[in-house]
Amino acid sequence: MSVPNVVVHRGADVLAKAVAARIITRLVDIQSAKGSASIVLTGGSVGVATLAAIAETPARNAVDWRRLDVWWGDERFLPSGDKERNETGAREALLDHVDVDPERVHVMRGPDSGMTAEESAESYAAELRAAARPEDHGPVPSFDVMLLGMGPDAHVASLFPGMPALYDTRSVVAVHGSPKPPPTRISLTLPSIQAAREVWVVAAGAEKSGAVRLALSHSGPVQVPAAGARGRGRTLFLLDRAAAAKIPPELGRPASP
Pick from 146, 145, 43: which is nearest to 94 by CA? Predict the structure, then answer.
């Protein structure tokens, strides 16, 4: 796994716009090199703000949206269209405004599909297996870019400290008893996160500063899940100043004055 690089921006608004620009540039580069690209989306306020910033900039037209596979790191087990679903937020902020191929937008199914949470997780795992290639060396694709938010408790996706999902070696799991509502969710596991070529952890706000410090220390991922959020080739912690306040100064590289 790669060693994290830390980039610090002035505030949450600047962070969202900077991550949006970084995503566009990275997707264009990947598509130029190999034809198509894949991204894993996250929810949360900064995650949605980042997608909205992509939609608002004319630079979005540099991306060939028809040649992009869109996945999710986790989802709340709620019906399609529910405002609390990460998918709903992503569609409203970005996906409804660009020419994505519906067949390449891979959603985690909710209870309106007739599936249980376990069946939804198994279905998503099967979809990931079908997309994986021999060179990925595993049951999930080597995602080009995985976006992850992080909670004040250092959770990523729907992997919360001390919960059984952190020990699970399957690619996707159903999560029950989440400390954040709703209690039932679907989530990629740490092995799936660590299969990504690049993992970008995006966090803003002073309430995240302690978790950021722990995630960049030598903490174990069972108690600090974000400490296990590492990409095969590259890991970025993209932070605002408030979220970066408790890390050693030598770790944070300011992106702007």
Answer: 43
Q: How far apart are CA 79 and CA 7, in angstroms?
A: 36
* For residue 179, cis peptide bond before it (omega within 30 degrees of 0): no
Q: How far apart are CA 256 and CA 239, in angstroms?
A: 12
Pairing verdict, β 68-72 and 252-254: unpaired
Q: What is the pLDDT of residues 81-135, one digit of tens each?
A: 999 999 999 999 999 999 999 999 999 999 999 999 999 999 999 999 999 999 9
Structure token digits, residue 27:
């997707």
Give the span between the Cα atoms of 168 and 183, in whole angstroms: 18
Backbone dihedral region for residue 114 (phi beyond 0: left; psi -120 to 50: alpha; all else: beta): left
Q: Which residues pair with 45 in a beta bridge?
A: none
Tokens coding 22: 């970084």
**Backbone CA torsion sign across 50, 55, 61, 64:** positive
Amino acid at 138: G
pLDDT of residue 253: 61
Distances in Å between the alpha carbon of 85 and those of 44, 73, 106, 213? 10, 12, 14, 29
**Which strand ranges, in their side-by-side order, compose the sheet holding 252-254?**
68-72, 37-41, 145-148, 198-203, 234-240, 4-9, 252-254
The two structure tokens encoding residue 1: 């796994």
Q: How far is CA 46 from CA 116, 149, 239, in A?
A: 29, 8, 10
Regarding pTM above 0.85, the answer is yes
Amino acid, single-letter form, for residue 32: S
Tokens of 68: 């992009």
Alpha-carbon span 90 to 109, nearest angstrom? 15
